[in-house]
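Need a sequence for this fold. Nothing fancy.
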C-alpha cells in the first residue's frame, strides 16, 4: 500500500512537470478528473472522442490517463496563454521570435491548433497571417506557419505548391503520394477538391505524363490491399510493376521482393532501375522503400535535404513537421546508422537562429509520445502488479 502511494506521487510529479497540470488520484468511486490549475480552463476536452481509460491501482485509488496518443488532453496546456504570448511577441517593437518558438514548442499539432483558435477568438485575427506579416526570417516563418495548419490540409497545400505555377516538383508528389495509406489519400483528395475547386487527379494529369502519370493516378485510386494477408503463390500473372506496387499490401510486397531476389539473383530495386528511368523510377523505388521501412525512407529524404552543399528547407520542414509525432525516433536511429551522423548534428550544420532552435526542438521530443506520460503508464501498471502479488 505504501509503495503504491509513493508511486502515485511520482506519476503526478511527472505530469505536472510536463504539462503544468496534475492528475490526482481519487477514490475509485469518485468521478476521476484532471484538475487544471488554470481557472479559465474548466472543461477537459480530448482530441478524439475515444474513451478515457480508468486504471485502478488498488481498491482505494484510481488514476486517469489518455488511452493512446490521440487522446492527450488539450487543456492541460494553456492555449490562451500561448496565444497571448505570441500576440505580445508579434506586437513588441522588435518581434520576439524566441517567445514565439517557446510558445509553439513541446506541443502536438492538435495543441498548436488550439492556440491558433484561441488567438482568433482573443484578437479577431488569423495567427498565420500575423506571423507571415511580422516574422522576418523566411524559413522560420514557413516552419511556424506549417506547424499551425491541420495535417491533411498541410499535405494538400504541399501537393498544390508542388504543381502550381511553372514547372512541377515531382519529388514532392512522390514523397507524399507513394507513402500514404488509402484513407489518407481519400481524405487528401477530398480536401484538395474542396480547397482548390478542382480534383487532385486533374491537376496531376495536367502536370505529369506517361507512366509516371499512370503511377500517380493509380495511387490516387487508393486501391491498395491493406489486409496484411500474404499470398504465398504469385508471379506468373501479367501484373505490371505499377499494379503490383500500388495494389499489394506491404507484407505481400516484402515477400515479392524476397522471392524476386531468390528467382533472379538481384533485387527488385535493381529491376526497377534497369526497367525505368526518371520520375517513374523514383516513384516506384519510393514505394519499395516505404514497404520495406518507412522511417528509413524518411531518413534518406532528410539526408538528401541537408547533405552536400545547400539545403532543401522545404523538404526538411515537411518531413520534420509531419513525422515528429509519428516515427521521428526511428527516423533518427536510421539516420545515425545510415549516415554516421546524428540528425540533430546534420540539421544544426545546415540551419541557424530560431529556425534551427525550433527544428531541433521538434525532433528532440514529441509531446505525444512523451516519456513522462509513458513512464507514468508503465509505473501505474507495475504498481498494479506489486499491489497484487
Ligand atoms: Ca506546374
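Here you go.
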Amino acid at each position: 500500500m505504501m509503495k503504491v502511494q509513493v508511486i502515485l506521487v511520482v506519476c503526478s510529479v511527472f505530469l505536472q512537470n510536463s504539462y503544468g497540470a496534475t492528475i490526482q488520484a481519487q477514490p475509485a468511486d469518485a468521478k476521476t478528473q484532471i484538475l487544471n490549475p488554470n481557472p479559465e480552463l474548466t472543461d477537459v476536452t480530448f482530441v478524439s472522442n475515444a474513451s478515457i481509460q480508468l486504471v485502478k491501482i488498488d481498491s482505494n485509488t484510481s488514476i486517469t490517463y489518455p488511452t493512446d496518443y490521440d487522446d492527450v488532453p488539450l487543456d492541460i496546456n494553456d492555449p490562451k496563454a500561448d496565444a497571448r504570448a505570441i500576440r505580445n511577441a508579434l506586437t513588441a517593437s522588435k518581434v520576439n521570435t524566441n517567445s514565439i518558438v517557446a510558445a509553439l514548442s513541446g506541443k502536438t499539432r492538435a495543441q498548436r491548433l488550439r492556440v491558433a483558435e484561441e488567438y482568433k477568438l482573443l484578437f479577431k485575427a488569423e495567427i498565420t497571417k500575423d506571423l507571415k506579416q511580422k516574422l522576418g526570417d523566411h524559413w522560420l516563418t514557413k516552419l511556424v506557419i506549417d506547424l499551425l495548419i491541420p495535417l491533411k490540409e498541410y499535405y494538400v497545400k504541399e501537393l498544390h505548391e508542388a504543381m502550381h505555377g511553372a514547372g512541377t516538383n515531382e519529388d514532392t508528389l512522390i514523397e507524399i503520394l507513394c507513402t500514404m495509406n488509402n484513407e489518407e489519400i481519400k481524405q487528401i483528395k477530398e480536401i484538395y477538391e474542396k480547397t482548390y475547386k478542382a480534383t487532385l487527379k486533374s491537376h496531376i494529369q495536367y502536370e505529369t505524363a506517361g507512366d509516371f502519370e499512370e503511377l500517380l493516378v493509380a495511387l490516387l485510386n487508393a486501391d491498395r490491399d491493406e489486409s496484411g494477408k500474404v499470398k504465398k503463390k504469385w508471379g506468373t500473372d501479367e501484373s505490371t510493376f505499377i499494379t503490383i506496387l500500388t495494389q499489394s499490401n506491404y507484407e505481400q510486397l516484402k515477400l515479392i521482393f524476397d522471392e524476386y531476389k531468390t528467382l533472379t539473383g538481384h533485387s527488385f530495386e535493381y529491376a526497377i532501375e534497369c526497367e525505368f528511368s526518371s520520375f517513374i523510377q523514383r516513384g516506384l523505388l519510393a514505394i519499395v522503400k516505404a514497404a520495406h521501412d518507412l522511417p528509413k525512407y524518411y531518413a534518406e529524404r532528410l539526408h538528401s535535404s541537408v547533405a552536400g552543399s545547400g539545403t532543401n528547407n522545404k523538404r526538411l520542414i515537411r518531413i520534420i513537421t509531419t513525422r515528429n509525432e509519428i516515427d521521428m525516433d526511428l527516423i533518427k536511429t536510421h539516420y545515425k546508422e545510415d549516415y554516421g551522423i546524428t540528425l540533430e548534428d546534420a540539421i544544426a550544420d545546415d540551419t541557424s537562429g530560431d529556425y534551427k532552435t525550433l527544428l531541433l526542438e521538434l525532433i528532440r521530443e514529441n509531446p505525444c509520445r512523451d516519456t513522462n506520460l509513458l513512464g507514468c503508464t508503465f509505473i501505474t501498471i507495475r504498481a498494479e502488479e506489486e499491489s497484487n502479488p
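For context: DSSP finds 20 helices and four strands in the chain.
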